[in-house]
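Deviations from the work plan: none for this task. Representative record:
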Amino acid sequence: DTEVTQTPKHLVMGMTNKKSLKCEQHMGHRAMYWYKQKAKKPPELMFVYSYEKLSINESVPSRFSPECPNSSLLNLHLHALQPEDSALYLCASSQAGPPRYYGYTFGSGTRLTVV
Amino acid sequence: AQTVTQSQPEMSVQEAETVTLSCTYDTSESDYYLFWYKQPPSRQMILVIRQEAYKQQNATENRFSVNFQKAAKSFSLKISDSQLGDAAMYFCAYMDTYSGAGSYQLTFGKGTKLSVIP
């Protein structure tokens, strides 16, 4: 299995809703990432998990709450979002160590619309 | 901090022709990785080609090849025999070889939108 699977593919939520995005991989990768991508822009790093521990939080508002229950699964819990949070949310995974590095494997993303 | 610059926001190419996308980067490191990712309208970021900085030989993957000029900090992507399916946003990306806390961070350029004309 060489894929990163993200669900759902599309999500519309109100500003008072609570929802979760899910990301799963079975490649044995021990680093997993959440990126936010606005239209016609490059992805922006939000969170990094390494060996199931949060290693990087790029000053993301607390209305975004990541979780890594095990080495294959990464969640992003959403609560009280704002319309400007509407974006494509990409999950990725990678090896967590040397010697050779092959880049990230990305999922196909969740298109989030906040109304 | 490392930066990646793609100076061509949009480009177009005739089907079956060759196109080159430009990328420059700035780093003080001597060893690092460089990547080109493709993002079609389907949204998934797909790895096109990778280059390890310590390797002088330019990477090639079928119709895709790079021109890696380490001293000039330049990493351009050449697409030969362009196909309609090559139409996408292309991102150049940089990564240090240092593993901070067991992870690797990609720094992306702003992207080049490539259109392929039939």
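The mean pLDDT of chain A is 91.
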